Description:
Elements: H1 3-10, E1 13-16, E2 27-30, H2 34-40, E3 45-48, H3 55-62, E4 67-70, H4 78-87, E5 91-93, H5 98-107
Parallel strand pairs: 2-3, 3-4, 4-5
Antiparallel strand pairs: 1-5
Amino acid sequence: MKVREIVNNLSCKVLAGHNGLDREVKGVYINDLLSWVMSHGNSNNIWITVQTHPNVIAVASLLDFSCVIIPENSDIEEVTLKKADDEGIPILQTELSGYELCSVLNELGV
C-alpha cells in the first residue's frame, strides 16, 4: 500500500512532504519517545506520534519511515513541516486518536 492510499482511506490532511506520497507502507509504529522509536521502528513504517518538533523528521528520515501521522489534529511546528518537505517525508494530520488510527489501518491490512 502507498501513503497516497492511506491519505485517501483516512481522509487525512497532507501538511508536508507531498513528493513522498508514493512511498510504500509495510507497517505501523506508534510511540512518542524518540529514542525508543529509533531502536524499535522499521523502514516503511507509518509512525503515529503526537510529537511535532523537527527531531521527529530526523528520526523518520534515519529509519526511512513512509510517513508520520499526527493524531487528534495536534498543531505542528512550521520548522517541522519545512524539514519534512526537504526530506520528502509526508506529514499527515487527522482528527482520529492513535487507537482509532491503528484500528482503521489494521482494517486496511497495514
